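Field reference: sequence -> structure
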Amino acid sequence: MLIKLNLLRLDKILTPICFLMILLGCSHEDIKLKHHLVNLQERYPIIPTSGWKVLNYDQGPNTICYTLERKNLDTIVFMESCRVLHDSIWNPGEEFYVISAYSKTYLDNDFKYILNGIPDTNYYVKFAIKKPDSIIFISGKYYYQWRYGLLNKNQKTFYVNHSDSLEKLKGNILPELPGK
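Structure field:
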């Protein structure tokens, strides 16, 4: 009798909540994503909390990760972000949110621009739409070369040892890294 009475009470509580969620068009996944984005925005205020499309969701033993895309007119933002759980080896006892990849792509006249990295810019490049193999670096040329395997072994070593100062250099006309 007590179990039946508790189930009836539970039913009275859950039915309106489920009805409201259906009415509002919110699924459990939508609510989890919104929670993720709100917490992420606390650390990265520039990140909007709406308008994202989930491309991938992955839950590991210590992480919950999303791969997201957001389109606005001619601008596409791609972001991978994770919630690192309390019992992780990275920060035991503390939960935190982190962006592992971020890029923003947009068109302007004859060029396509790609901004990569948040909160710091890893690289910022533009491509001529008619010549997509011609990259013009606004910043981050050495990071781009290191990230995409365009440096030889000696240059990679030089980059890793001096990356803190090399990543701050701007411009397209920069010398090759030593070690060729």
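Note: The chain is about 35% helix and 35% strand.
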